[in-house]
Structure formats: structure tokens, C-alpha cells
């Protein structure tokens, strides 16, 4: 299992650039299932929309004043203040998103350009001039050939207390999503069982190859969560298409269930939600398989 920075913590990023595929639902409920198995989870809401932050009942954090996750990701000297952002939830600890996160993509794009001009002698652009276009980026804060290591660095400060870091990613490909995937190097992919998912999965595969080429990492696919599955012909066709494309990987099926939306609104995973939902067993299967893939299966699960 590939990990960054010698990290011994299992990090995974739930990602698919197509909007509304169930990233947040899957991330929250996989985190809930891991907690159910006795694992300590740090949940990171990397999406500027803050849906997971809201779904975990932490909407006040979304509106909190700086320093926020924005500062952690964009200022090299603020990485360790991630420790001050962690909020308790019954099932997990959470690094909430914040309204300021809407500006992160711009900052990380500038940081990436600064990294490029500093590492490519054929480009005659002053990094100082570029960084003036940002709020927080400075040439000396961007040391490597890319600027995608910002979350990786921040997680290293706090993750020793946890078994897992689960990252919910935004619905677009950009530097923020890349930083989430770079930090984890492991992706869990939710996909709707409808025809439009084919394009989304093809783009995902291309994007992972591009990120690997840019950074030299290998992105490991943990599995696919077919989501909002119903019993139509289209669902059947898409399930078999996913089965062919992800032949070597586990594929789980989460049915369409209103209770998943209700738990979301109630601020918890389905495991803490008052109403029993038959999808619990699916998310527990995902959690068990993650334990297996991360080599944690033999570790005692507390009663
Ligand atoms: N299996 C399901 N059954 C019923 N509703 C679901 C299911 N999965 C997700 N939903 C609902 O679909 C909507 C979109 O799901 P979610 O927010 O998890 O997707 P997302 O990929 O995170 O979206 P975005 O791309 O905006 O981040 C939410 O209202 C959620 O409650
Ligand atoms: Mg989401």
C-alpha cells in the first residue's frame, strides 16, 4: 500500500469529478462504518461547498473566521494550525470546510505556476511577480516541482492519533482535488449507475494518469461504490460496464434509499441515525475491505 511521507495512517480520498455521484454520502458513511469497526477516523472536508461539514452538523465551522483550512492549505507557515481546526463529532474527528475555501483553487494554481517557473529554466517569468497575484503564496514557500503536497504536509502534523484519514473531494478536477489525491494516493470512487457515468469514469482514469505523470506517485484504486442503484435495465448495463472497467477491484452496490438523505440532514452517518437502514451492511463491507487492503484486518477491533 503506497503512503506519503512515511505515513503509517490509512488515507483515502473519495473522488469523482462528476457532481452528485455520492462522494459526500459515501465518505461520511464509510467513515461511520470504520468508526463502527472501532477505527479512529479523521474526516477532511476538502470541498468548498462544505456539504460534508453541513452533513455532520458543523455548519458553524463553515462560517468560522480565519485561520481556516484555506490558510492551512495556502500558507506554508500555517500548516500546523490544522490541529486547531479539528472538531469533535460523535463518530469521527472532522477538519471542516469553510467559505474561504472558495479561494483555494486560485491560490493553489498560482503556487503550481510558481513551482513550474522555479523548476524550469526555459521559462523566463519572475516567480515574485506570479506570487503577487495570490494572497498567501510566496516563492520560498513553494519548494518542490509542484505545489500539491499542501494537504499531505498538514495531515502529517495531526494524523498520528488516527487509523484512517477520509477525504471528501470537490466535484471538479483542479489543484484542490489533486492535493487530496496526492495526499492519500488511494481513491474510492462513487459512480452512479447511469450512462453519463461512463464519461466521468474515463475522465477519472485520464486524470489519475496525468497526476501520476506530473508528480511521480502511483494512485491506487481501493474500489468503486455503485451508488443510487435501482433495478432498471440501465442500472444493470452500467453495473456490468463498471465490472469490466474495474475488473480487478471490489465494486459495492448502494441502493437508492431516502434514509441516506435523512441521515445526511440529521448530521450523522446512517450508523448513528435513529432509523435502521439496510445499506449499513454494504458500508461495513467497504470498511472491512479497507481494513484488509490497508493491512489492518488482523488488528483487534475493539468491542
Ligand atoms: N444511495 C442514495 N440514495 C438516495 N439518495 C442518495 C444516495 N446517495 C446520495 N444521495 C443523495 O444525493 C444527493 C447527492 O449526494 P452527495 O452530496 O453525496 O453527492 P456528491 O458527489 O458529494 O455531490 P457533489 O458533487 O456536489 O459534492 C444528496 O442529496 C444525497 O443525500
Ligand atoms: Mg459532495
Automatic annotation (TrEMBL):
Q: What is this protein called?
A: Cobyrinic acid ac-diamide synthase
Task: Report the Gene3D superfamilies cross-referenced here.
Answer: P-loop containing nucleotide triphosphate hydrolases (3.40.50.300)
Pfam families xrefs: AAA_31
Q: InterPro entries from the entry?
A: AAA_dom (IPR025669), DNA_Partitioning_ATPase (IPR050678), P-loop_NTPase (IPR027417)
Any idea where the AAA domain is? 12-212
Q: Which domain of life is it from?
A: Archaea
Amino acid at each position: 500500500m503506497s503512503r506519503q511521507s512515511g505515513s503509517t495512517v490509512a488515507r483515502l480520498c473519495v473522488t469523482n469529478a462528476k457532481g452528485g455521484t455520492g462522494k459526500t454520502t459515501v465518505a461520511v458513511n464509510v467513515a461511520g462504518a470504520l468508526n463502527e469497526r472501532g477505527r479512529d477516523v479523521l474526516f477532511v472536508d476538502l470541498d468548498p461547498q462544505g456539504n460534508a461539514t453541513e452533513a455532520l452538523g458543523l455548519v458553524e465551522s463553515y462560517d468560522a473566521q480565519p485561520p481556516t483550512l484555506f490558510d492551512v492549505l495556502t500558507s506554508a507557515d500555517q500548516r500546523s494550525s490544522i490541529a486547531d481546526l479539528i472538531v469533535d463529532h460523535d463518530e469521527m474527528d472532522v477538519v471542516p470546510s469553510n467559505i474561504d475555501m472558495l479561494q483555494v483553487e486560485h491560490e493553489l494554481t498560482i503556487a503550481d505556476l510558481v513551482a513550474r517557473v522555479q523548476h524550469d529554466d526555459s521559462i523566463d517569468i519572475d516567480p515574485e511577480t506570479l506570487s503577487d497575484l495570490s494572497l498567501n503564496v510566496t516563492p520560498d514557500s513553494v519548494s518542490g516541482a509542484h505545489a500539491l503536497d499542501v494537504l499531505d504536509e498538514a495531515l502529517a502534523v495531526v494524523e498520528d492519533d488516527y487509523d484512517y484519514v477520509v477525504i471528501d473531494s470537490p466535484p471538479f478536477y483542479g489543484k484542490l482535488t489533486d492535493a487530496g489525491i496526492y495526499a492519500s494516493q488511494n481513491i474510492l470512487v462513487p459512480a452512479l449507475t447511469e450512462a453519463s457515468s461512463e464519461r466521468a469514469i474515463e475522465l477519472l482514469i485520464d486524470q489519475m494518469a496525468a497526476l501520476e505523470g506530473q508528480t511521480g506517485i502511483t494512485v491506487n484504486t481501493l474500489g468503486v461504490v455503485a451508488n443510487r442503484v435501482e433495478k432498471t435495465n440501465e442500472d444493470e448495463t452500467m453495473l456490468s460496464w463498471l465490472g469490466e472497467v474495474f475488473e480487478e477491484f471490489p465494486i459495492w452496490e448502494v441502493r437508492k434509499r431516502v434514509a441516506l438523505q435523512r441521515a445526511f440532514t440529521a448530521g450523522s452517518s446512517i450508523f448513528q441515525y435513529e432509523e435502521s437502514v439496510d445499506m449499513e451492511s454494504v458500508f461495513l463491507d467497504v470498511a472491512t475491505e479497507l481494513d484488509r487492503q490497508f493491512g489492518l484486518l488482523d488488528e483487534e477491533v475493539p468491542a
